[in-house]
Amino acid sequence: MPTPIAIVGISAELPSGAYSKANLEHSSFFDFLLNGQESYECMPDGRFNVEAWKGKNRGEIRVNAGSFLKGIDLFDNVEFGISARDARTMAPATRKLIEQCFLALVDSGIDYRNRNVGCFTSGTNLELTNVAEPDEFDCEGSFAGYPSMVSNRVSTHLDLLGPSVPTDTACSSSLTALHLAVQSISNGECDAAVVAGCQLNHRFGRAEACVAIVVKPLQQAIQDADQIYATILATAINSSGGGAPPGAPVAEAQRDAMRRAFKLAERNPREVDFIELHATGTAKGDPTEVNWVGEEFSREDEVLIGSVKGNIGHTEIAAFLASLSKVISIFRSRQIPPNVNVKELNPAIQWLKYQLRVPRSPTPLPCHSARGPLIAMSSSGIGGSNGHAVLEGPPTRGSLDSRAEIMAAQPSLLVSAGLSSRSTVAFSESITNMATRSACEVPVLSTILGRRSRSMTWRSFAIADSASLGKLQFSSPQLCPREARPVVFVFSGQGPQHERMGRELFERFTVFRHSVLEMDRIYETLTGSSMLRDYGLFDGCGSPGKLKDVWPISLILPSIAMFQIALFDLLTSFGMKPDIIIGHSAGETAMLYASGAAPKEMAFELAVIRGRAFAPLEALGGGMAAISCGKEDAEEIIASVRSELPDNILEIACFNSPSAIAIAGHDIAITRALELCQTRGVFGRKIRTSVPMHSSMMERCREDYCRELRALFERYPGQHVPQIPTYSTLTGERLSDSIDADYFWRNTRSPVRFTQAMERLTASQSCTFVEISPHPVLVSYISSMAGDGSPVISTMHRVKPNMPSVDHVDLLRVCGELTASGFNGVNFTALNNRACYECDVSLPAYPFSKKSYALYPDTPGYAKQMEPHLGPLNHRYLRINKDTHPVLAEHVIRGEPIMPAAGFIEMAIEFGATALLHVDLKAILSLSSETPPAVEVELNSSYWKVQSVTSHDWHSGKQQKRLHADGYLTFEPSQPLKDIDIATIRQRCKNHVGSCTQFWGCMTGSILNGGFCTAFYSSLSYFSAYGPRLRRVTNVYYSEKEALVSIKGMDNALKQPFNGNYDQNAYYLPAHVDAVLLHRNLAEEQLPHHLYAHVVLKEWWPVAKHHIDPLPAVQRPLHLIYQPAFFAPQQPTPASLSCNDPLRIKLDTINCYVSWLACASVLGC
């Protein structure tokens, strides 16, 4: 069985439609599904000009709706350290992937920056880039738009060191990405991985989504107390091969992927409780998938199946991850949301045979295995890439222990972190508001925030208790280095001890208490007394009256070691493990244990031995002092004292810093030295001890002390070599040899070379120093030597009498300062005794400061899809042939579909002209070409022309063009037309052309009982063939001077080619006038040369005044009145017109009358 993989982080943006003003994130998406909602909506503004391009023909857009993400143009490039130019050059999907991968990693709380974390992503990079060519000025020097950048940019800006792999297997891309991530983790190529998919649409109505998850080995996730959303037992992928065309699903291939996955998972398909299908909703895809699923998963009871595509559509690249978001929530809630839009079951699916059921209301998740819920997920991509995943619910884990209730009432550390100083400050304000509202959740909030801070480059912290929740004081944000500084634990020597040290830690923290009690038992065995019982140390319940201002050395050294060792145990239990150890003087006792050179028992026994051996020296009248000067000045002071007091000892005991020295010797010499310091303006003070450590006076105890040391090392034989880098303050160098008894004699007798050790340590690196001490004594020395790039942190502080202890707050402060400095090792779960998964805490959204970036570069490609069209036949990207404009192609002359002459004039009128002048129709435009030629409709001042591109020389860039029509136009308001008495005209036009029958089929008893004039169009068949959609003439009445023509109004047949005008009740019907002018019978009747060329749409007919109920607008015939205009054909009459003949017709004037109901048509031939 492969390594089980846990999903430990997720972030999602899914379409919400009218359901919400914001995109759906992971949890709100499930509420959306449970409520049976849908996200389909009209295409948002700024994506694509649907109105200009909609239609059913080639080159047009069939749909105007889909599921869309809101605000995909918004991105905070500054937060991710991305230049504005790179942000512009990136595909929008890449920007969205960076954002969502970041949020998923933040949700996981794993330490991912500069770590071996893989990145497996898929995004719509190629399509969006190719549709709108990259801006050559913006993209120079940037690789942001390259296909590989879909994953590489995520790895770069999130600093991921593992494999970075973009995937594209169409609709199965995100499952393929997950499979590769699982394999990479199982093979040890990376420790964790982020898997993401982003689908952003272009042009047609698909669904958009961006989902990212974080995966890591299950056992590691349990060990790290991660939030575990689900467990991936196995994944499998394959290809359909050549068994079917690329677009056809293959059941056996899909089934094979499923069988591989279940074999790897070592589970039985009949244990599955729910199957999330790919289920694209296609006529072939659904039966293919569902029937093999039914066959493989069928059992005695029903098999539940479902999909999210009814709710949000097909998110393609992100389809699997969108479904995974649903599945994760099913595991959590034990509820299966309903499938929507299931109005009737597909009869091609064998529902009853396999007992398949699609939930249509929220349904409890069944459980067929004692191991817990099991869900299978299927995914397939067009082209034959199939995949399957087997998932199990998250493991059951309880709360940590009963002390969680105690911890809830105690202070908590809240870390605010972000990718910038701005976001860190903004987030701290959100945290303050949240903590005030939900005080009971603060410990869990502390754990979550602390874990998440590890992925941030800027950090600050505050300590919250019941009194300060509403006024949290966060520290100033700090920028963390990419490589964390080594943490150095510095164990101080004697001097900072006090009777209340560690008391609150002993009370509240089990690790500290157990460590102290363990060492106190050793102390009692060796001395016969107890530090707790006899001196009241740590628990405050003993006899503190025994302690005086200056403690005996036999108590000082063991108590300091006990505190330091117990604090070390506590800090390391919270993940604060040092990279380097230094012990100052007596601090090298704790150093022995902390470095791993000796067990705790040996180190503490050493402290007891030191105290016991040094006790006789307290009667010698010795002491120590600290003076603020360099070595040379100290030697001058010592020389002066020795000259005055030659019988007294005074020597340098410690080199604490280049400007700080400790001296040791007789008290009288110490006092005189401090007097000399005062006269010289040198600060000096006595150290609270009566033992002159590191001086020649220590020779008095050498024999006894060394004997006990040798005995100690004999009781604990073996090599005592530090297991982590340790710097000796005896030699000033790094310790590499085994520590022996002689080392600790020299440690006692020789001066402390702390300055030299620090210089050696900091010579080539910056570090974070933590002084392990009951009260700061070395912090100032360390700070003076470490430099500005090395934080120095004190642990505990001595408080004034009668003031409450601050040990717990100090501990949290240490954790906060370490974390803010860039240290990622603090175990916030242990610190708070609460895990991140123990209660639901809704965190504030990450405070991005986004700005809008264009979805496409400002290039011709973008202009083409966004530019409004002046009309169906007038725009810059017009291309025409029989496929793009099939209605116009029904205008056939001599077997050749050609553009009606009225179409050319239509193009000119769509500029908004009120009149056309000197129209010159020069050449026909054939519509029969396989590739539609580009047609240019241009206007220069008042001159317009229509020309097509006949050839393009790609080498020279030159185009050959043919001029089809030109003329002039005006936008001057036309004179209102006089009312026309149609009834009178009808009386004058006594001649009738054609025999019309069955007009509209619903006008029983009306004066018109016919449809198309059969005889009228049949008479044209000798040279022309009008398609059914262009047969608009229903009646023609004429006389010698005028004609009245009845033309069918707008209907669905003309809606597509003229949809730009249809919605405004305004339309152009260029074929109408053709039908009149080219009619043979009219020519034979020798109609006057002055034809009625000005067409006025006067009214609908029949109308109410005829006592006939009006028809719907799309079914009403139109009356068109022709008024005189000069018409002079310069070529053969229409009856002898050949498709190869040049057609040249000139019209002096065409007036264009527009009413509220409709637009005038135009004359054509």
UniProtKB/TrEMBL annotation:
InterPro entries: Ac_transferase_dom_sf (IPR001227), Acyl_transferase_dom (IPR014043), Acyl_Trfase/lysoPLipase (IPR016035), Ketoacyl_synth_AS (IPR018201), Ketoacyl_synth_C (IPR014031), Ketoacyl_synth_N (IPR014030), Malonyl_transacylase_ACP-bd (IPR016036), PKS_assoc (IPR032821). Signal peptide: none annotated. Residues 860-1165 form the PKS/mFAS DH domain. Residues 860-976 are annotated as: N-terminal hotdog fold. Pfam families: Acyl_transf_1 (PF00698), KAsynt_C_assoc (PF16197), ketoacyl-synt (PF00109), Ketoacyl-synt_C (PF02801), PKS_DH_N (PF21089). This is Polyketide synthase. Residues 990-1165 are annotated as: C-terminal hotdog fold.
